[in-house]
Amino acid sequence: MATPLEDVGKQVWRGALFLADYLLFQRDLFQGRTVLELGAGTGFTSIIAATAAQTVYCTDVGADLLAMCQRNIALNSHLTAPGGGGVKVRELDWLKDDLCTDPEVPFSWSEEDISDLYGHTTILLAAEVFYDDDLTDALFKTLFRLAHRLKNACTAILSVEKRLNFTLSHLDVTCEAYDHFRACLRQLEQLQDGQLRFAVEPVEAAFPQRLEYERIRQLVGALAGRC
Predict the structure, then answer these.
(1) Cα dihedral 48/18/220/163 (nearest 10)
(2) In Å, how far are 10, 40, 99, 111 from 108, measured between CA atoms?
(3) How many CB atoms lie within 10 A of CB 35?
(4) Residues 138, 97, 120, 35: is their CA dihedral positive or negative?
(5) CA torsion sign, 89 to 98 to 150 to 199?
(6) pLDDT beyond 60 at 225
(7) What is the residue extent of each domain of the chain?
(8) Contact 88, 56 (CB under 8 A)
(9) pLDDT tens across 118-145, in order?
(10) Strand, helix or coil for residue 44
(11) pLDDT digit string (tens) for 181-218?
(12) What is the DSSP letter of 103?
């Protein structure tokens, strides 16, 4: 059965487990770093990142979803890196250019948060958020906008599962959402804006599997580094 669009963030998808395995394999890459996760859903990947990172900004939209993230993070707070800043749950809407700073809005950003985000973030994460073309476009625009504002060079680590479907428009089995994701990656790599450039490379699925899920060949990872 298909998951309703409004509920896709309320479960842990296979691509998030795949990304989490990669994070566990690359723990040294996250040691003491500031990390931003986009479209965090349950907060699972942010929790895994926080086992090594200094601070993780776990972001999504919707007060109920963010409250669920907060509960999950609190239940797993014993896993965060010793001496780290833990996981901060914040709202980040890809359809808006600016972060919400209204103190009356749940999970809004403080000026201190924003300064830390732009001043220290070097790793961005996004797992299984490429199921809708409009949202995929919005995410890549957000990545580009953040790359302009971050003080340091950054790397985005993305994961997705290629889901094959029969479509009437093609009268064949296709993976349109994945094809659109790949097209956006190519556009990002070809884009040059002053000194801002991106290098894209695949994540080879040769790293150990530590979590329980079926690692099918349709699981795909990519690194997009600002250079």
Answers:
(1) -120
(2) 21, 16, 8, 10
(3) 26
(4) negative
(5) positive
(6) yes
(7) 5-226
(8) yes
(9) 999 999 999 999 999 999 999 999 999 9
(10) helix
(11) 999 999 999 887 777 889 999 999 999 999 999 999 99
(12) T
Q: Under CATH, domain 5-226 is a member of which superfamily?
A: Vaccinia Virus protein VP39 (3.40.50.150)
CA distance 167 to 175: 9
Listed as own residue / partner, the contacts of 72-81 with beta carbons closer than 8 Å and 24 or more positions apart are 72/42, 72/43, 72/44, 72/47, 73/43, 73/46, 73/47, 76/47, 79/47, 79/50, 79/51, 80/47, 80/50, 80/51, 81/31, 81/32, 81/50, 81/51, 81/52, 81/53, 81/54
Whole-angstrom Cα distance, residue 36 to residue 109?
13
Question: Given this model, what pLDDT does residue 46 score?
Answer: 97
pLDDT digits (tens, 9 = 90+) for 143-163: 999 999 999 999 999 999 998
Give CA–CA dist 128/130, Å, rounded. Answer: 6
Helix, coil or strand: residue 154: coil
Return the SS3 of 8.
helix
pTM for the whole structure:
0.91
Phi, psi of 127 (to 5 degrees): -125, 125
- CA 145, CA 142: separation in Å to the nearest integer? 5
Q: How far is 129 from 15, CA to CA, in rounded Å?
A: 9
> Which three-class secondary structure state does DSSP give residue 209?
coil
Contacts with 207 (C-beta within 8 Å, 6 or more apart), sequence order: 21, 22, 25, 26
